[in-house]
Design brief:
Six copies of one chain form a homohexamer. Chain A is an alpha/beta fold and 290 residues long. Helices cover 29% and strands 34% of the residues of chain A. The first copy, chain A, is built from nine helices and 17 strands. The longest helix of chain A is centred in the C-terminal third of the chain and has 20 residues. The two termini of chain A are 31 Å apart. Strand 16 of chain D pairs antiparallel with strand 17 of chain E, so a sheet runs across the interface. Chains A, B, C, D, E, F: This is ATP phosphoribosyltransferase.
């Protein structure tokens, strides 16, 4: 039997990844102390790998494909084929940014001011490449963690990841510049991407993952509408969605069924009701494949 | 941008309130140690306030509106406009009652027996006003908590809140009379209620809150019915609900879709099946706006 | 008012049983330290009883009916009427097996090798009856627990329950034979099963329990299909399910609504899409009564 | 190397036993899912065994010795040699009692009233033997647990273990008679008790266990006393203890050092101070061997 | 038997109080849901009472004595006899202060600036009395909690309790003045304090509580010293402590035993060693009565 | 005021380090989300730093001194002065080892077999230097974690830290060689070690840390002995300890006070008792400075 070797990111994204897979219809369980999660598809073999190392092992064929951040692909310089961008995050759906940050009262206000300074970071290669692009020479030190508490005693500046900037602000740091914006990617080994069976397997998997992601934050809405009010009601629904309109036994009425963004529900429902919709019911969805 | 200042009750109702708002489509999060919950609507500004103080701050305009108990509005004597009654509670949906309770073996059997006695309570004003209505004079002491353990050593009687009476019984207390029945209310500052923008904002919010509350304890039911059985099947459904009947490709059959109370499902389904319904499917709902 | 006395299994199955009842529409709560769970149906009176004793108390009429394992009915030799087999389990849906197990390096390879040996087990009667069937005489000792750690020091062999065999393997034990396969059963006192009111009550309860079990692991799928593609799309759906096909306002299209196994979704959706289905939406179900 | 096979009671006494051993100077750790606790003495090999089965396995030589309750030795009828009584218990130091209990409103007031009744108990043999002693014939049923909730529906009376009687009272049961009083015993296989090496090993172990138990609830007290006050101070100390009196550099004073019960400290210290003791210091102890 | 009715403060000080009593030799346990803690002295009867109400109930004789803060005695205006000040606190041993605090950018810089302002506080009487002392008239509102988040929207200033000022600073508040400094007090009903039996019982209890508090933060130190070095070593010990010097069998040496503050140990030990002390051993203490 | 900048290892050793400091008399607390632990000595300023980076920051003077593993000092190549070896560990007191490990069935049996292989490790420099010493060339890859699960798919061999070898065995790995044995060290910046005030401060701190470590696993033992038995009793005590012998009021007896290893107590006490010691009491210690 053919098997697709799939790398899943260990650590902070692990549970969110498993949730996404579960919504997509794949049951993943993490046996304690094992790095080989069980999955209910015998054609998939999963391995938990640090996001930092995913590029390396997909590139050398130890894995056929994997999920990891765009940042770590760039940092590792790994040669992999990107098949999809996946936006999911427990805390938010915003992409993360790697920024140059300095103490609030620092004299550093741009790349040029870094000449000869000490910079602590987990992404040494991204930082060095960015400095080279600005023609600046500085001492870039690998940071094993807690980077944001290092300035000013242990570093003059840092390059650190942030989503909201809260942690930087809490440490009295000021953002000077953004080096890289990053989201989660599904990457494949270039040869695996050319193998027909593996590629079909990856495409089916991505179809389901996208279907699950599309359903997050969406809800179903059904309502009954008198035919004279139909145009008015449809006018209130988001233009790009194509609602299903079905006849009812009572021929004066039709049923309208549609999918809308959960966070627009509260704006649209008052308008639908005003436009003549009745018996409006919102129901949950688990997958949407257009 | 206009902003509506909304007070949410801190403490035991806090999580239940946030759940209700989430079901209504508003994401509320409580930053640790902050009394300003985040909400994903920039036109709303939330503040956590003790239920006891909500009336005072809505009345003086520090807040435009808020959720609190009818009891604390009465106790504080605050001048506010009540816009809606909201019935939600983690433990039960029954309203709470403020009752006069005494030890099982007490000689007190009615208001008149309280003359000259010590009464401990958190609602000093409600109690005094009730005593005055009965022409009785007694010593009413503010209780900082654990009121139900005070009789007979620290008080002769108490006025205490209860839902089921369990806690009173467990402390060997007997209910003599009910002073007030209370549910949660949505109250507004009288001037804010006259401001067109604020009033529309509050009405839309209430429409969504009511839609979410209506869906709690309700489920959707869909089934296929042969046309000759339709009248029989419809006869088994609760009279006041208007089911949606839609044609099917197979013209001998119709589809019936309706909303019923979750706790009647187990009585109705056996009857529907006996009346000829087939393929009965129950599905969950998140909002109902009639 | 008539009351049906229902026994629920205390211990490891307790929460799973309550979950099943909740999905079936019955709210069960466990007051702390009480063996009489509350249920929101005044015609049912529940008692928590150890699975091992359920047969005894249903047989002698202390209870009208109850849920317990087939194994304990056999072990107790109780005279009860089995009304239904219920397959539910938190960990898996596989039935449990009582097996004869010995140390990996034991000389015991079949029933005959047990002559004169010490066997530790919780099911002394099942074991003795099985030994007698093989004409073997051995010393069967009741084990109060931790049976799987007894060989070889405290027993030569054990008869122990297992679902996956993992615990036996972890204790270096080898399965020699299977004595009994067991699932959960709904059993009734023979006279209660003949009482019309009690029997109707039990049948309605079983209808709802089966409806809830049928919905576990199933999802609803709805999609729009152009009429020319309909045969092709229907061809991809599992044969035995009869999808609901309903007309749409746009007469070139029909809506298809069906129920499928959750773990086949990921195989079927890519095929449906390829066959021409559009706007495929998956939604959750809570009960299915065919 | 010689090894002593020691059984430790699994379950409710397990942690209390390990605590006692730790205080006695033996470090016991419980590897998860193993029934062979690790101990830092290579001459001891520990096994966790249910208290109910300890007698059986010590009697047949599977174990050399073990700790278990007197009740389970009697119930199992095992032939073992009792070497010591050990009184330790997390909740209290009172021995447990097995009592006959009936509903408060039962007609049963003595053994004779049990004729023909149903009795549920975990100690079937003790109960049958006691009934036989009273010339009474009743139906004794083995109870798998929750025995105290069985009367009156599932049994007329129970024989159940109790320390304080609280649980019986909470279930509206009344104690009719006491069948057996039980404490923890250290029992040995009769032949192991005659083996010189094993006996010496057991005696040394018991010396340390007793030293640790003696120190529980005891404290050290030291104080300085002027010689003229010495007789007066000594007079206040418990008679049976022999305090250490040592000279000080200042020849008018002596130091007194003694061991007293922790719960008498609060009565004795005020008296010692009044009698002239100064600089009274209480310090903790971990072992006392007289 | 005579009984002393003792009030213990419910809430944040409850566990710290019980710890202190346990160290003093009294075992207190809190039965769940009961306000009557069990204590192993039949002559004491304990009741948990809010610190705010302790004064009221000690003053009216419902209790003979109790522990509460000086602040709440002042606030309640209760007539009680103070027998002792007890300094114990989980977090720190510093007394708490009630301070007037305002937003950092407020115009209020002293009592006079409060004229006509809104002040929120839990100590309405203390605040009003302090304002009167400064001849200032302001609106003092009772705050049910979360007082520190009220300025500037819900109050212009607050009177709030603080130990370190951290919580005030975190809410951007500035301390303007201190109204009251408070520690825990042992207070008695004036008549109970004159009753000989009750007074003796309270004095004995206070002796033990003080002994336990004296031992907190103290350790015992013993060492051997050659006689010629003795003066030098003693010179390094805190002057006010009187060490016990005892002869040894080896007449060139003496043993020195003393009690010192735990947080001076690290300064003194290096000096003792330099002065010739050897075999220095530190050991723990549980009670000290001088 | 002079201040000593002290680095403490963040992460797995953090709590153990704080425990050791607390036993030595320094109260360390970790404010949440801060990397600057509070300590009750104003002359010490603590910073939490990853063990891997401690050498770097002590060498460049960002810190005066710090605690870290010998392994990370070697890996970083930092120029620091080692002042003491500190042996403390929650799990054990054994030093850790960095070992070369390969799959059980690997062909690699010595350094020479590594030629051209992939080695994953967190200590890239130690590994490269060791390979160079053996004249072997291999591909050494930095491992971000979970190194022990990498062979054979992601590496041919690993260099990993181990205390007991359990984790390696659980991953079916075999130890081929040991590269480095490591314990915790107290290291100083070379210039700080020459500064008189800083050096004295470090020496005093080390004296207290050593005193606390010496007391771990030791207990005090005191007993009374008749003079004729004294030689016999002393003979049973460990030779290297010098017990304190003091006279008693009863001149036939002396008191003996000594310190012994906790894990020898159970062997020595039976012998002391046999030799004539009476009233043997064991008591706990917190610090020993010889």
């Amino acid at each position: 039997m053919s098997v697709l070797k799939l790398g899943l990111p260990a650590g902070s994204l692990q549970e969110a990844t498993a949730d996404l897979f579960r919504k997509a219809g794949y049951k993943i369980t993490f046996p304690s102390r094992s790095y080989y999660p069980a999955i209910d598809d015998p054609e998939l073999h999963c391995t938990l790998i640090r996001a930092q190392e995913m590029g390396r092992y997909v590139a050398d064929g130890s894995l056929d494909c994997g999920l990891t951040g765009h940042d770590w692909i760039v940092e590792s310089g790994a040669h992999v084929t990107e098949l999809a961008e996946l936006v999911f995050s427990k805390v938010s759906r915003r992409p993360v940014k790697w920024v140059l940050a300095v103490p609030n009262d620092s004299d550093i206000h741009g790349p040029k001011d870094l000449q000869g300074k000490r910079i602590a970071t987990e992404v040494v290669n991204i930082t060095k490449s960015w400095l080279a692009g600005h023609g600046v020479s500085a001492q870039v030190e690998f940071s094993w963690g807690a980077t944001e508490v290092k300035p000013p005693k242990f570093a003059d500046a840092i390059v650190e990841v942030t989503e909201t900037g809260n942690s930087l602000r809490a440490n009295n740091l000021r953002i000077v510049d953004t080096l890289l914006t990053s989201t989660t990617r599904f990457v494949a080994n270039p040869q695996a991407a050319l193998d027909p069976w593996k590629r079909q397997k990856m495409d089916d998997l991505l179809l389901m993952l996208r279907g699950a992601m599309a359903a997050e934050g969406k809800v179903g809405l059904m309502m009954n509408v008198r035919k004279p009010d139909l145009a008015h009601v449809l006018n209130k629904l988001p233009a790009l969605k194509n609602p299903t309109i079905s006849p009812l036994a009572d021929q004066e009425w039709v049923a309208v069924n549609t999918i809308i963004d959960e966070d627009t529900v509260r704006h649209i429902i008052p308008q639908l009701k005003a436009a003549g919709a009745s018996g409006i019911v919102e129901y949950p969805l688990t997958k949407i494949i257009d």
